[in-house]
Design a protein that fits this description.
Helix content is 77%, strand content 0%. The chain contains 17 helices and no strands. The longest helix has 32 residues. The N terminus is likely disordered.
Amino acid sequence: MSIVSTVTRARQVTGSRPETGTRRPAAAETTVLLAALLGFFMLCLDATAVNVALPGMERTLGGTTAGLQWVVDAYTLMFAALLISAGAISDRVGARRMFAIGLVAFVAASAACGLSPALGFLIGSRAVQGSAAAVMLPASLALVRQAYADPARRARAIALWAVGGTVAIAAGPVAGGALTSALSWRAIFFLNLPAGVATTILLTRASRSPRRAVPLDPAGQVTAVLALAALTYGVIEGGEIGFGRPLVLGCLLLAGIAAGAFVAAEARTAHPMVPLGLFRSRTVSVCVAIGFAANVAFYGVIFVLSLFFQRVLEQSAITAGLEFLPMTALLSGANLTSAKVAARSGPRTPITIGLLVSALGMAALLMVALLGSGPDQVLLTLTLIPAGAGLGFALPSLTVVLLEAIPADQAGMAGGLLNASRQVGGTLAVAVFGALIAQRASFLSGMRASLLIAALALFAAGAAACTLPRRKMG
């Protein structure tokens, strides 16, 4: 398979002509897409399947509740902290090489997780796994971006890539529960070994990725990692022990100082990791903000409802996971439909419509939660469908718009930037919403406040989407 070396910049959304160049064979494009999709699938499956396996880990390895929480949080912390840096390095060393490095590390860490003799060892292995996931995610998106020269085909490929994550998120709780019940929680991690081998075989058939021939930005790398790590840790701990504690306040202060140092470093260096001029583009700024708001709503509400189904309705973890299947089943179809609509009327249309449909779905969820003494389970499940499917309709086109607005040799950085904003949004929502529902006596009022925040975030995102440029793909 060959990558078109002459195509080095993305078509600008605001008026440049479509990319041109030698058309790659369809089989070659598909090989790259399958490798990226399978890698993305592994990351998302592992992130969601582990939650339902925590009781099994406790029986095998012991440990405190806080220790079990860090089995999840260690992955989240490293994943969020390294996304932007890993994406920028991917542009410099090549997306294929970076993806391969992350893949090897992810599979090795998965094996270590499955063989863990103690809880501390498992937490450390999960931190390595999260670091590897941060390396893989922006590189996988950059691989897809670079493999498809035609904008319309690229939009469809990104939609398929998104489907991989959607299916994994839907299958994760069910697969995790089934594997833990039938075999052991260790099987969740061992499942990554054959999947990693298959991904490696596909990756060997991909051509070398283009590189961005500029030096690394060590000051930017260090300050970005420090800012994101301190922010994520502070948010996680704030959700557990309260945001007024000295440790939490210190972390958030450190995050603010590191963010200021990052901005100063990027403004002074000749080759910044994240060129600050990008944010003068309304398209880039709006896309990053929408990504943040979307994950605040989606992951925050999934978290709250998961606890409602299990704590209030006293359902099992698997049954609670099945409550989300009607919504997640439609997410994949919404992902694919997004690309088709974008090809006809431009990506702004599915982004705006999707966000507003999701916002209305969240508002409907809030209305259901306000009914009587407690929300009806069936109505909650039904109103989840438009809330989730709307985001599934919006987000693939959002990714396309951002990638089209940034030069092709910065696709890794763009993917890292978007996904870092989304990851921070999801982490912040889980912490804040978790604090709102912490007391069982006030669970319903906290749940209603969380749904209100989610709906307002999505309405604001939908309004912002109206400012994106209107341009058809291709």
